[in-house]
Request: fold
Amino acid sequence: MRAVTWHGRADVQVDTVPDPTLQEDTDVIVEVTSSGICGSDLHLIEVMAPFMTKGDVMGHEPMGVVREVGSAVTAVKPGDRVVVPFNISCGSCWMCSQGLQSQCETTQNREKGFGASLFGYTKLYGQVPGGQAEYLRVPFGNTLPIKVPEGAPDDRFVYLSDVLPTAWQAVQYAATPPGGTLLVLGLGPIGDMCTRIAHHLGIDDVYASDVVPERLARAAARGTHVIRTTKKDDVVRAIQEATAGRGADAVIDAVGMEAHGSPLASMAQKATAVVPDAIMERVMQVAGVDRLAALNTAIDAVRRGGTISLSGVYGGATDPLPLMRMFDKQIQLRMGQANVWRWVPDILPLLVDGDPLGVDDFATHRVPLEQAPQAYADFREKKDGSVKVLLRP
Ligand SMILES: NC(=O)c1ccc[n+]([C@@H]2O[C@H](COP(=O)([O-])OP(=O)(O)OC[C@H]3O[C@@H](n4cnc5c(N)ncnc54)[C@H](O)[C@@H]3O)[C@@H](O)[C@H]2O)c1
Ligand SMILES: [Zn+2]
Ligand SMILES: [Zn+2]
Reply:
């Protein structure tokens, strides 16, 4: 089959790789019909590159049609339309039963000290082949795939794999009080969807910061107050002016490691290109790189006693956090990979009955799998109006 594979920093290609096969009697094989490119994929071709191996199949936002099922699978059958969550979770362990599917105890990567395995996502998370491919092997066929109705185009359901539950969790973790103010940092697909969900859940005062014009325009069109800068002092000033000097009740960081604004960030990015992988792997795990620009904005922009909800992905261990300031401001901090299945029952009704979140025209680009390298480059460089790309294998 054809698949998007990792070849190095800023380098993905489309290769012919072996078709996946059933390995356990609970596996299913899904023929992928749509597959998103995510901001997390950009980390893999930048700072997380030391944890990737040439030939790894990328992608963790797929949906499609079940083609084969193992002998113990009863929940889905060939021909069923399914979305595949990005976390690989068993659905039956203690963590899964607590709604913490990203910490699934069956797929936890204990030897690496990391949580549940993820499709298409580094050695730290199981090095499981991803879904930017014609076919995908999906374990836990009775509990993992999300069955979705026929009828509407893929665009309606595909974001259940990641964007929707990630943004939903970010808004829940932010816990904006009634009548309160929410600030969203970053208007990529995740931040954009956070603003939509916040409005839908009745949060009136939603502010968002970014510098990419078409991303700002999308958010403004749906009633978000946009702050057209990512400079910390300017964002903090804008939010203070809007809140009697107090700061936002809640801040969502939907940026993560790819933040611009940190003087060391581009240096670290260049370093990953020249330092041998074995060394960079250690640096990323035990030291980290200074890429906390957005998080530092969040810490300054949130009001005393407010909440920061972190959905952007961070790595490293010794990037300095201003702990004294965080303690003094009594900041509450919640974070983590989204627990996809935890939120599916809340979100699915919003996809079946009308389109209140505007998923039908959320994608800016829908391209054949073969055009993935160009699509990655445009998304990475935010060129050609690229906000959300769906690959159509
Ligand atoms: N927690 C999860 O389960 C989960 C799931 C999916 C994605 N993510 C992470 O969420 C983050 C966003 O994903 P995306 O697909 O929207 O990515 P993206 O790269 O398209 O969007 C990031 C946006 O942040 C903006 N930005 C950069 N620096 C900024 C700053 N200092 N302040 C404000 N905005 C800034 C960029 O201009 C860009 O528009 C990534 O880190 C991704 O890895 C997490
Ligand atoms: Zn994703
Ligand atoms: Zn589990």
